[in-house]
Amino acid sequence: MMTLSGQPAIRTVDMRVDYDDLTAVHDLNLTIEPGEVFGLIGPNGAGKTSTLRVLGTLQQPTYGQVHIAGYDVEEHPAEIHRLLGFMPDAPPVYDDLKCWEMLDVFARAYFVDRRQRRKRVDQCLADVELTAKRNVLAGTLSRGMKQRLILAKTLLHDPLVLLLDEPASGLDPMARIEFRHLMRNLAARGRTVIVSSHILSELSDFCTSIGIMEKGLLVESGRIEQIASRINSHRKLIIEVTAGMDIAQRLLGERGIVVSVDAAIGRIILEFPGTEAELPGLLAALVTGGVSVKAFYEKKMGVEDILLRVGARRVS
Amino acid sequence: MSGHVVDSPPAAAAATLNAIWVKSAYARLRPRAMLAWLVIVLSVAAFLYLVVYLVTAEHRYLQHEQAAKTALLPLIILQAFILMVMGTATVASGFARERGAELLDYHRLTPMSPSSKILGFLFGLPVREYLLFALTLPFVGYAAMRGDLSPWKLLLFYAVFFCSTWVYHMTALVAAMCVKRPWSAQAITLGMVAGLYLVLPQLGRIGFTIFEFLTVRPTFYGMVAGEVSDVTARRNPFFEYQIQRWQQVEFFNLSLSPVLFSLLVEGFVLLSLFLVVHRKWRNEQHHPFPKLYAIFCGLVVHVVLVGSIWPFITRLEKYNLLYGRMRGALRLDSSMHALLLILFVLLAVCGVGGGVLIQLVSPTIQTMRSGLRRARKIGSRRLSFNSDAASALPVALAVSGLTFVSYSAILAVASHSSLFDMQPTSWLAHWAPPLLIGLLLMFVFLLSELLGVKVMAFTLFVLWMIPFFVQVILLGAFGREVLAVYVGLTSPFLDLYLVCANFVEHAHTGDAVTLDIMPASWRTGIDAMILSMLSLYAAAVLALGGLWWRRHTNLRRVELG
Prior knowledge:
A: alpha/beta, six-stranded mixed sheet, 28% strand, B: mainly alpha, two-stranded antiparallel sheet, 24 helices
C-alpha cells in the first residue's frame, strides 16, 4: 500500500476562484497532513464546494498552486485521480444501472485489478450496508441509499485522499453512526479526509482538524484543540454538587470566577481562567470547604462552539 | 498509486474493456428491451429486402443478381437511419443527460485518459444502434453475394459510411457539451446535423462540392450507386447525373477518388470535433479551439473552398456539367452570372464561417481578467497568444486576410480562364466585396469582445435584421429601390449582393451594357451607395476599435499594475 512519503496530503498556496465578478475563494493557503480528517465548515456561499471542486480537479483555480500528495493539480491530473476519491453534494447515480453494475463500471474505470474486481465491489457494497440491494436498479433506491452507493463508489479504489461534500446529509440515524465509524476507520488507516458539512455535531465526533470559511476566506484552521485554546483562554468547567451549593458559589466567587448556577439540578457552569495543572487544587478547595462534589469535568469545545465563537468574534 | 486493489493503468487498460462503453452496454443491452428492437429491425430489414428483391425480380423481370443489388439501396437507407439518425439522437440526449445530472464529473475524476473517455462515450452511447446495424448486415451480405457486388467497393463505402456516422456522433457530443437539457441537446444536435450535413451540402450544387463530402453521398454515388443503377437510372436522370459526377473528385487540378477525399474531409472534421470535446472535457470553460488551431481551420476551409470551385472556373467540361445543368433553374444566362453566384457564395461562406470562428475564440471580459491575474501571479506581463484569455484579434485579422486571398485567387483564375469575359475594373468595384467582409468580421470581433455574445447577438439583430425587414418591405411592397438600399445600409445581406453584382457588371461590360442583375436605379448611384456602406462600417470599426483599445489598456493597467 502506498503512503504519501512525507508530503502534505493537500497543500494550497494563494488559491483563488473567481466566477465572473464574484470571488468565491480568496487566496486560500491550506496544508493538511496525511491521516487527518479535516472538517471544512462555513455558511452557504462561503466557498467550500468551490474549494473541494478545485482540490478534486473538477475546476481550475483562477490562480494559485494546488498540490495533492505532492502532485500539482493542473500538471498531473491523472496521477491525482488515482489517489483521490470525491463525493459531491447530493450525488447523482446511474438510474438505469444496477448497484453492482455501477460499482463494476467505476472499478474498471479506476483500473481495479480484474481478479479482485468482483470481490472489491461486494466488499464496498457490504461496507455501506447495501449488499441486499446488489441487483436493484440504482434509480429505485432512496436518497440515503443512493448516497451510500456513491460513498461505496468513492471508496472503490481505496483512495489516499477523500473529498466528501455533505456526505451525511441524506443519511438516516443508523447510517450516520455507520458513517462515523467509517470515517474513524479511514483515519486509522492513514487516509486523509476533507469533509464539508453543515451538521457540526457530527464533525466533532471524527474530525481531527477544521477550517472555517466565510465569504471565500479561511478565517480559522488547524487542530480543534489548538483552535479552541487560541480563541478561548478560559476552560469551561462543569461541577455537579449534591450539597453545599452556597459554599461552592462563595468559594468560587472569592477566586473571582463568574459562575452560572442551575440550582434545581445542582450544576455549576464556570469559565476557569487557570491552567490544567490548577484544576486539582480547585477541586480540593471545594471538597475541603464542605461541598459534596458529584462530578467535576471540563467540557471540551466542539466544532459548533468554535464556529459560534469565531462568528461572534468576527461580528464584534 | 493509491491502494493495493489498483492495477497499473496501461496494463489494466489493455486487459479490460473501456469502462464507459461497459456502462452503456449494461444499461442499453438488457435482453428484454433488446428483444423488442431485435424483432422490429429484423422484420423491417427482411421486409425491405424481400419487397424490393421480389418486386424487381418478379414484376420487372430483372435478373436475380440485379434484383439483389437493387435491394441494397433500402437496406443502406435503413442502416443510415439507425446509425445516423437514431444513433446521433441517442448520443446527444445520453451525453446531455449525464452532463446535466453531473454524472460526467465522476468520469472526469477517473484515471482513464480523456481520449479513452471520449471514445467510450462515442462508441458506448449508441451501442444498441450498432447492434441493430449489425442485424441488417446479413441482408446486405446476402444481397452483395447474390448480386456479385465487389466486396472491396462495399468495404470502401462502409469505411466512409462509418466515418460520416462518427462525424455526426461527434457533432452530437459537441452539442451536448454546450447544452445541459437532454431534449434541447437532441433538438440542437439534429438541427446542427441537418444544417451541416443536409443544408450546407446543397452548396455543392453551385460548385462548392467540399460540403457534400461531409456526407456519405459522393462515395455512395461514386462507388455503389453505379452497381445498382440499372433499374433506377432509367427512371431517374438525377441519379445518373450524380453517378457521372462523383466518379472522380476534382480539386484544384487534381483528380482524386471520392473515397479518399471523403476520408480526408471527414477526418479533418472528426479531428476538429474531437479536439473540441477533448478541450471541453478537460475544462468546460475552455474555448472550443486554441487560437492557432482556429486560424488553421480558417486556412483549411479557404483552401478547400477555392480548391473545390477551381475546376468549375477553369475547365469547360466541368463548368458545363455543373452550371450548364442549372442554367434554367437559376437564370444563369451567362458565365458572368455564374461568377456572381460563385463570388457571392464564397464571400458569404467566408463571412459566416469567419464570424463563427472569431466568436468561438473570443474571450469574455472575465476570462481576460482571470488570465491577466494569473499572468501577474506568475510574474508575467503578457498573455500567451494561444491562451483563452488572449484577444481574438489575430484570428479576426487572419480570417479577414484569408478572405482577401481567396477572393483574389478566384478572380485571378477567372480572369485567365476563357470561360469568363472579364476586363479590369475600378479599384472600388474590385476590392469592395472582400473589404466589406473584412470590415464586417472586424465589426463582429469588436462587438463580441466589447459586449459579450448575448448583447452582440441582440445588437446584430437590431443592426442587420430590422433594416433587412424594412428593406424587403420597401422593395417588395413599394418598389422603393434606392431608399431600400440606404435604409438597409447596415444590413450585410443586400450589401454583399450589391458589391458582388457591381464588380461583375463592371468586369463584364464596363458601364455600357448591363447583365440585368440589379435594378437600373441602383446602377446610377451605386458607387456612392457602396462608399457609404464601407465608410459606415469603417467608421464603426474605428470607433469600436478605440473603445476596445482603451478597455484593454485599462484592464492591463488595473490587473498587471
